[in-house]
Each structure stands twice: as C-alpha cells, then as structure tokens.
Design goal:
about 290 residues; alpha/beta; Rossmann fold; 2 domains; 6-stranded parallel sheet; 3-stranded parallel sheet; 10 helices; about 15% strand; binds NADPH dihydro-nicotinamide-adenine-dinucleotide phosphate
Length: about 290
C-alpha cells in the first residue's frame, strides 16, 4: 500500500480562503473587522519569521494585525501590562504572545493574564479546562488543525484506536482530548512508554508530537493507518546541508499508512490558518453574533 499524502498546504489555503470570505461578511453585515495582536519579545530569528508570517496571513484575510515588539530585557510586569492593555482594547479580538519568552519571565503568569475569550492560542488554563469538560473555549491551533485534517480524511472517527505520542500542554494533551471528544479510544504515549512500537502498531490513528527526528518507524505503523506528523526537526544531511524532517520515518511509513502528512507541507501550514479561524470565532463571540457559515 502507498499512502495518500495529506496536503496541508492545500488544506490551509482552502481554510484561509473561507476565513477571508467570513471576514468580508462580518465587515459588510456587522461592521466588525476581526483583529489579532501578536506580542513578540526579543529577536529570536525563528520567532520573528513566525510573527512575520502570521502578520502577512492576517492582513491577507482582511483582518487587522497589531504587532507589539518588545526588547528581551522587558520586565514581566511590563509585559503583563501590555497584555492587559490588549485585553481592554475592543479592536483586538485575539491575543498571541509568541513563545518561548526570555528566561526571566514566567510564561504561565503571562498566559494566564490573557483574557480567556481573546486567548486564540488556547493555552489559558480556563480554555484547557473547557476543552476537557466539553465547554466552548478556544482550542489550541495545531491540534485543532490536526483534528480538522483527520475528520476531512476519515469522516467519523468514532471507535477508532488513536495514539498521541507526546504529552505537552500545547500539542499532545489537547490533541488527545480532541480525539477523545470524537469518541476515539485514545492512548497517550511519552518518553516513559514501555513498548512504543506495539502501541503504535495497534492504532488506526497515529499523531506524533515529540520533537525527535523520525522516532516513529515506518514498520511500526498498522497497515492503512492515518498518520499525522506534527514534528518539525532540522537535521544535517551527509552533504552538510540541512533539511526538515518530522517525528515519523516518512519514507517507510508511506508504504504502510493509508494516509500521511508530510514534513514540511503537512501540519505546519495549518497552524497559522487555524489561528486566523480562532480569531474570527473569538471576534464573533465577543460581539455576540453568529459566526458566518
Ligand atoms: P515538547 O518537547 O513540549 O514535548 C515532547 C513530548 O514528546 C513529551 O511529552 C515527551 O515525553 C515526548 N517524548 C520525548 N522523547 C520521546 C521518546 N523517545 N518516546 C516517546 N515520547 C517522547 O514538544 P511539543 O509538544 O511542543 O512539540 C512536539 C513537536 O511538534 C516538535 O517537533 C515541535 O517543533 C513540533 N510542533 C509543531 C507545530 C506545528 O505547527 N506543526 C506546533 C507545535 C509544535 P515526556 O513528557 O515523558 O518528556
């Protein structure tokens, strides 16, 4: 069997088009322009690239983009004050503080300052609690993108065996929760899991969010399983150049899986598109209007 490649770029492009259409409806019919504020502390080059891409995509969707750049010696109190200002600003519907933050700043304290209804990253403890208890909160972008791609590919996920490899608060745990909400039988694997190959081998859905290049071997995959590779790892090739690989050994997994996301071009492009989707959702909820269909 050769797997279908799940094209995250195409999926994200469709989603962005749909978001731009909804934004136009909100502008025309409700006078609302959804606004996303991104706070970047310091000059980490990777974070700068992410923030630039977010800004470009936000503007392209017809939304307002507010960028707040702060020096890496900013104090925790100053950063918290900035978040509070954004909480109070009615033109800002979504707030994202780009992580990681410098070591002298307590990330949790900053995230807990974001108003939960503006927390478009879905990292606030209130939003984690709402996800766990079936409430209507903001759902973290990467796992939400993964579940959207899974539902698009497989339709009803009910009763399927799923494994999430990785238990981080931003990917693994919310991913497992979303799969559980779809009535999958969910296993969460991590660095202490005894026999990862066996756990993966019995799963209809494998989501890998580890950060270890090609940890999940292709011959572990159950024939026909759907594989979502969240990992983004830069490795050095024999010729000294670098390339991006996922957490799954793609070349062998593609021969056993039914469908698989590539790296790059799979989950990555979905994350920003879902961030825009969350901002539109947040804007509608804050204005008390129905989200356009
Ligand atoms: P974390 O480092 O926070 O978590 C990694 C998880 O993997 C931990 O739960 C850890 O287990 C587990 N793990 C580590 N080694 C092993 C192992 N040998 N066997 C099984 N489990 C293991 O990472 P994130 O969740 O933040 O990110 C995971 C990956 O996803 C990274 O490559 C990151 O770059 C990528 N990512 C991609 C995004 C995208 O947009 N596509 C967005 C976010 C992340 P334990 O808890 O026991 O230590």
């Amino acid at each position: 069997m050769t797997a279908t490649i799940i094209d995250g770029k195409a999926f994200a492009a469709n989603l962005k088009e749909d978001i731009a259409r909804k934004v136009q409806i909100l502008k025309d019919q409700e006078g609302i322009t959804p606004g996303l504020a991104v706070v970047l502390v310091g000059e980490d080059p990777a974070s700068q690239v992410y923030v630039r891409n977010k800004n470009k995509s936000t503007v392209a969707a017809g939304m307002n983009s507010f960028e707040h750049l702060m020096n890496d010696d900013v104090s925790e109190a100053e950063l918290i004050q900035k978040v509070e200002e954004l909480n109070a600003d009615p033109s800002v519907h979504g707030i994202l503080v780009q992580l990681p933050l410098p070591k002298h700043i307590n990330e949790a304290a900053v995230i807990e300052t974001i108003a939960p209804e503006k927390d478009v990253d879905g990292f606030h403890v209130i939003n984690s609690g709402l996800l766990a208890t079936g409430g209507q909160g903001m759902v973290p972008c990467t796992p939400l993108g993964c579940i959207m791609m899974l539902k698009d590919k497989l339709g009803n996920l009910s009763g399927l065996d799923a494994v999430v490899v990785g238990r981080s608060n931003i990917v693994g745990k919310p991913m497992a929760q979303l799969l559980l909400n779809e009535s999958c039988t969910v296993t969460i694997a991590h660095s202490r899991t005894k026999d990862l190959a066996a756990v993966v081998g019995r799963s209809d859905i494998v989501v890998a969010a580890v950060g270890v290049p090609e940890l999940v071997k292709g011959d572990w995959i159950k024939e026909g399983a759907t594989v979502i590779d969240v990992g983004i790892n830069r490795i050095e090739k024999e010729d000294g150049k670098t390339k991006l690989v996922g957490d799954v050994e793609f070349d062998s997994a593609v021969k056993r899986a039914g469908a698989i996301t590539p790296v790059p071009g799979g989950v990555g492009p979905m994350t920003i598109a879902v961030l825009l989707k969350n901002t539109v959702t947040a804007a509608c909820r804050q204005a008390g209007v129905e989200e356009p269909v």
